[in-house]
Amino acid sequence: MMLVVIASIVATLGDLATAQTGAPPAQVETGVQLETGQVIERELAGGQQHRYRIALSTGQYAAVTVDQRGIDVVVQVFESGDHLLVRVDDEVGPDGTEQVGVAADKATTYTISVQPMIQTAPAGAYQIRVNELRAATDREGPWIRASQPGMDAQ
Predict the structure, then answer these.
(1) β-pair type (124-135, 60-69)
(2) Where are the chain's structural domains?
């Protein structure tokens, strides 16, 4: 399957190893479907993970933004079966924005996970939203790419 995930990836080696195994923190909340125009604001603390679903049709692209509000979060995108596709932590610190884009070559549902960068972090909040849902372009080709112009990673 050719899948495109567009994101900027920053990870420490220890956190990357955890992310690659897909091992979730102790408290995982699942089941929320993301829709265009919907803004979800939630509180999050160390040891928690919130998972969201986004269904994409063949050739569709979704741009997702997570605004950190008092907690540094990591955003991960999983393909069916908990296969990790990308992990994003561009904004180091408790404030800022994490962005990820996903495009699919077949109709499927992806899982987007939001969890604290530090598993002992005190509670903070975040907002998640789908900024854009549209047909994928050639620019969203069949690789993982950095979101910053001129930085590609495969």
Answers:
(1) antiparallel
(2) 3-139
- Using alpha carbons, select from 61, 73, 46, 59 the residue that is nearest to residue 128: 73
At 114-143, the pLDDT tens digits run: 999 999 999 999 999 999 999 998 887 543
Backbone angles phi, psi at 59, to 5 degrees: 75, 10
- Of the candidate CATH numbers 3.40.50.10540, 2.60.120.380, 3.40.50.300, 1.10.580.10, the domain formed by 3-139 belongs to 2.60.120.380
Q: Enter the tokens of residue 42.
A: 């939630």
Strands 48-56 and 27-33: parallel
The pTM of this model reads 0.74
How far is it, in rounded angstroms, from Cα 65 to Cα 154? Answer: 22
**How far is residue 55's CA from residue 110's CA, in Å, rounded to a whole number?**
6
